Each structure stands twice: as structure tokens, then as C-alpha cells.
Amino acid sequence: MVAVLTRLFGVHNLALAEDVVQDAFCRALEVWQYRGLPDNPAAWLMAAAKHRALDVLRRDRTARRFAPELSQRLESEWTLVPTLEERFTAHAISDDLLRMMFSCCHPGLKEEAQVMLVLHLLCGFSVAEVAGAFVATHAAVEKRLTRSKKVLAASKELFDVTRADELAARLPAVHRALYLLFNEGYHGASAQVAVRAELCREALRLLELLREHPVGRTPATFALSALLSLHAARLPARLDAEGELHSLFEQDRSRWDQRLIAEGWSLLEQAAGGPELTDYHLEAAIAWFHAKAPSIEATEWSNIVKVYDRLLELRPSPVVALNRAIALAQAEGPEQGLEAIRAIEGRERLDHYPFYAAALGELELRAGRSELAAGHFQEAMTLARNPSERRFFEQRIGACSV
Amino acid sequence: MPEFLYIYRGTQRPSDPQEGQQILQKWMSWLEGLAKQGKLKDRGQPLEPTGKVVNGRAKTVTDGPYAEAKDLVGGFSLVEARDLDEAVELSKGCPALERGGTVEVRPLMKI
Prior knowledge:
By secondary structure, chain A is mostly helical.
């Protein structure tokens, strides 16, 4: 909704668009308090926002400068309502969302700030939720968002989706933002829940939108879509009915979403349509090896290690190296895995990552050193970020004393 | 059964959507509860905080109502109860009270 209104008001009036949405929302809540929820709250909210927009446009027409591209049509009472109606059609909305996506990924902003904006403006995250996603304080995020919005507001026009060269330049930032958004849902640092499927769905939805646009249809977009679809396929098995977290090793594979796996594969095939090889391609390939394996034992671990090697060349990171070590342990045994972990460059950066300690625990356990293993799981426990993680590590500590 | 009008005052707007959703939940479950007991005659409506006031014989029209926030009527509902005591008891679950508001319970005049 903010995207649609920003299109109407112009990006320099971003704050106004946000206010209008917030106001429409609060009014709706107040009416629903008494009357109960309508059958289709989303449509109702859209209508409410439209009415508020019309009010603002009529009232402030002379005082404010609205979207320069639309201003002529907004100035005449004859074309005002039809223009407004047009902006609120499904097609125009997806168009506006795309514009907004690219606007958020402004080159004047740091990557992290861009993702924060996407979460806040496109996915409707509150400041507190953005803070949760970035493990930052409320005040810091608020300050950051305010500053970012000022940068956006300073740009004269809302990003023009037809300028292919600028779009292409911003595409990697858009990918990164969607990747992080999905990740936040998949293993979020949220205090209560370990998996937030709605964030994953948002990321997939925005990617679908991106694939529909000529400039967005790049191999990297398809690779990222494949990766996220394959991961999303495993979501139903990741968390059981009691809210317990299950690692890949103990997931009930019959609960994997076969439709998403098939879609992931088809997207991966389309991603291979050029010479471009991104880290999304490689990560999607790894996800595909997992998705097609009937069991942990039947997984092609040595192939997975090879893909991880390529990935490390492209994007060296201690987390990637840790995952490679886990795959290596599957292929060659726990001692090899432990050795690989000890050899990780920048290992100290993993010190606060609970699954680093957990990986050490798992491998020590498999190597038969259960006391050492229990110590590592204890440490993972102290680093756990939500109750599901804590219970998961508790259960692993239990496994050490069997 | 006797009918009573609940007049809600001092129902402040929520400061953000999260808070709004919580308040919505509370109101819905409270009114739902009254309806289930067969006590709710009309769910009522919220009122805009602005309007006009027409005064006396001269019928002068002023902007208003400029009551203090805590005295401003925010909405109303119509309930049915055995007597005033029961109507008062039922009103104690109103979420407006938790946020510093008041509920005025007024019997509808019957002859």
C-alpha cells in the first residue's frame, strides 16, 4: 500500500504515504473493534487507503507537489479519480511494488539499510520487527530508517522501472535484500518462534514479481528463486506440530513440499540459461542435492563438498566453511569434519553462532567423545536465540548421555 | 429485558498498528462474549473525534466537541441485562477501562 501511495504522492512524500496507510489501518481497527472483522480485511484496507489518499490529494493539491509524472492527471478533478482507481488495480500495484523494491535499493544506501527499508516499506515490518531481524536496538533501527527515508525522499522521482541500465545495477542489491528477508524467516533470530513462514512467503512473492519483469528475469533471479523454493519446500518438516525444530538430519522427508521441490528444479533449469554463475546458483545446487536425496545416507555428500569448494572461492565466509565441514564429515567421517572446522579462517567470528558450537558437538558425539560433545551443546544452549533452539540443544545434550 | 446504553469515553487511538491489533482483539473478544450470553443488542459504532456543536435558541454552530480527551465520547453499544447492577457488572470487562477510559451505563427509559 505504501508503494502504491508513494507512486501517487511521489517519493519525496514517502512519509505522507506511510502516514496515510497507518491512519487508514488505525481507523479500520477502530471500526472493526465494534463491528467485527470483515470477510476480506485486505480489500477493506485497500479501499480505506484509497479514500484517505483521495482526501489528501484533494486537500493538499495546491500546497504540495505530488508525483511529477502523475501530477497533471492528479490536478484535474476530471482525471483524479480514474487515475487513483488505476493505481489501485492489481497490475499497477505489482508494478509499484517493483518500483519500490528498486527504490529501496538506492546506491546511496548501505546494503543493510536497503534491506531494512524493504522489510519496513514493502513487507510492513514494524521498527521492532526490523530490529529483531538485524539483532539491533530499536533506537538504532529507527534512526537508520529515518536517515534512509531522507535519502529516498531526496531523489526527485520514484525509480523509473524503464531505465534498464540503472535497474540492472541495482538488481544484485534487490537479490541480496530478498535473500536476507527469506533467511530471517527461515532461521530468524526472533525471540518466540524459530520459523516465520510468512517472511519466507513474502520473499518468494516478491521474487515472483521480479521474474515477471523483463529486467528482473536474469539467471541470478532464477537461481535465487530456485534456492528459496527448495528451502521453503523443507519448511513443513523443519518445525513439527509442537513447534520443535528439526535439523536436516532428522527431518521427516515425506513432509517436504514436493510441489515446491519440482518448482525449484524447474527454476534451477531456467537459471542455467547463461554463462553467469552466482553464489545463488551454487547454493541452489546444494539445496537440490538435499531435496532429491531420499535419505541422509543416500545424499551425494562428496558432490555437495565440491559445490561448497566453488562457493568458498566465490564468497569466502566462515559460515559457508562451517557448512562445508559438516558436509565433509558426512562424506569422509567426523574426524575429517572436525579438522576442517579447525582450519576455518576467521573462525572467531562464529563464536556467537549457536550452530557452530552445535556442529562441534555433533561431530564429537559421532566420534564417540560424548563428554566433549555435551560441553559444546551446553555452549550452544547459552547462545540459543529462542525456546525452540534451546529445546533442540537440550535434546542433543540428552543424546550425549545415552 | 431492560436495555442499557454503554457510552465509552476517553478511548484513545492506538499509537501504532501493533497496539491497535491488540486492542482490536480485546474488544472483539469482549463484545463476542456479550453476544454469546445474549446480552448484546447492538454492537454500536465508534465516533469520529470531530464534528460540530449546535447551540441553543440562536442555533449557533461551533466546531467541536472540544471536550477533554478523557471526556470525549468515542463510541457506544446497546446491551440487554436483568437490571442496572448486571449491566454495570458486564461493563467491567470493557477494554477501554484498561487504557484509562470510562464506560457510562445508562438505562433506556421505558414506560
